[in-house]
Design goal:
Layout: H1 3-29, H2 36-54, H3 64-70, H4 73-94, H5 99-122, H6 128-145
Helix pairs in contact: 5-6
C-alpha cells in the first residue's frame, strides 16, 4: 500500500468513527417531544444538501444521466436500511438505553452477524487472531448485558 492509499485508509476509518460518535450523540440528545419522522425529514434534507455540495469532491467521469442509469435497487435498499438504523437507535435511546452501552451492544451484534456474510458472500478470510477477537467481542457482549 502506497503512502497516499495508507493516508486514505486511515482518513476513511477516522471519518467513519467520528461520524458514528456524532451520530450516537445526536440521536441520544434528540428531544423526546420531537416527532421522530419530522426529525428525520430535517436530517435527510440536511444530508441531501450536504451530499449535493460534496459532489465536486468526487468528480463524475460521465454525464449526470449516465450516472443516474447506473444507480440500482441497492440505493433503495440502503435507504430502507438507513431508516431502520435511524428509527431503531432513536427508539432505543428513548426506551432508556445508555449511549455507552447501546452502541456497543448493537455494533458487536452487527459485527458478529457480518462475519458469516463476509465469509460466504465475499469470500473473506479470517485468521486465528480474528476468531479470538470475535470470541472476545461475544464475551464482551454477554458481559455488557449481564444483569448481575
Amino acid at each position: 500500500m502506497g503512502e497516499r492509499e495508507n493516508q486514505m485508509y486511515i482518513f476513511a476509518i477516522v471519518l467513519a468513527i467520528l461520524g458514528t460518535v456524532l451520530y450516537h450523540l445526536f440521536q441520544k440528545i434528540t428531544p423526546a417531544d420531537v416527532h421522530p419522522m419530522f426529525a428525520f425529514v430535517v436530517t435527510y434534507a440536511t444530508s441531501t444538501v450536504l451530499s449535493i455540495l460534496l459532489i465536486p469532491l468526487f468528480p463524475i467521469s460521465t454525464s449526470f444521466v449516465e450516472m443516474i442509469k447506473k444507480v440500482n435497487w441497492v440505493s433503495i435498499g440502503l435507504g430502507i436500511a438507513i431508516v431502520g438504523v435511524e428509527v431503531g437507535y432513536l427508539l432505543a435511546y428513548r426506551a432508556g438505553w445508555q449511549i455507552s452501552l447501546g452502541a456497543i451492544v448493537s455494533n458487536v451484534a452487527v459485527a458478529v452477524l457480518l462475519v458469516p456474510i463476509g465469509i460466504l458472500l465475499f469470500r473473506e478470510k479470517l485468521t486465528t487472531v480474528n476468531y479470538v477477537g470475535i470470541v472476545l467481542c461475544v464475551l464482551g457482549f454477554v458481559m455488557t448485558n449481564w444483569r448481575g
